[in-house]
């Protein structure tokens, strides 16, 4: 549990979310601060059926004041009240019916662009919705893989930076190899006028966004959000799979789990190409994704990072806690009174 103290500081489809918060005024109380972090365990399970079907996906775009870090909040723009948006899981050949509702109390127009779509704008043109409007389109899932989706309303980078991204998995006909645990992690950037560590309701900075100078790097929406109560959990001897994406909008990630080696990497999120074995760090572009599988051999706390390691200090970190018996054949070390180390 030492790593948690060192690095934790300041299921399906979720079809509804938290109501949007109202900004504070001098004569009104501060807005309620929502928990916008999507747990890494919040994803649908593998698809058992082998025949194509029609799958309905309901998205609600909501603008919510949520917790960014200890003592700091931010006006997030979300799909279904969380960051990232819900993970969508379909099978190749499925017909996907997407319904997008822009909440009536939104201040902005929103839409959704699925990278898994073959068609104009990935659905963005069809789903452009003013506050209070609902739009629908359908698409055929033609090609398997893990894909990003995001809002594509101008200024597109602004909508993405504020939290409007998620992932869709299109399973191949035979499905994916079975593992004991699956997790859903998406990296993003947040650009605030205020410096990292500031308290209160922080404001977005368009200048920093255009200059690609984020104050925060986040996994699933918040500063070191996948630590503490939202850390990932598994046991020695189990296999895990992480569906990892980068919403961005600007920065490429070097995804790495400190103290582990990926047994299999699905490059660029492709599930039809051969996997790459025995990989230390995988590069994922903004608007891109990957899948990593590995078996757990030794108990302890494993830190997930973007290996551009200055970003760890800006919030880009999570913890995978592994419980079980020691395995001295694989790893043994005498007690060390010094704290820290290991990146």
Automatic annotation (TrEMBL):
Q: Which reaction does it catalyse?
A: nitric oxide + Fe(III)-[cytochrome c] + H2O = Fe(II)-[cytochrome c] + nitrite + 2 H(+)
Cofactor(s) required, per the database record: Cu(+); Cu(2+)
Q: Which InterPro entries does the record match to this protein?
A: Cu-oxidase-like_N, Cu-oxidase_fam, Cupredoxin, NO2-reductase_Cu
Leader peptide range in chain numbering:
1-23
Top enzyme class, one word, equals oxidoreductase
The entry's keywords: Copper, Metal-binding, Oxidoreductase, Repeat, Signal
Q: Which residues cross the membrane?
A: none
The note on cofactor binding and number reads: Binds 1 Cu(+) ion.
Q: Which Pfam families match?
A: Cu-oxidase_3
Q: What is its EC number?
A: 1.7.2.1
Family per similarity comment = Belongs to the multicopper oxidase family.
Subunit details:
Homotrimer.
Which protein is depicted?
Answer: Copper-containing nitrite reductase
Taxonomic lineage is: Bacteria, Pseudomonadati, Pseudomonadota, Alphaproteobacteria, Caulobacterales
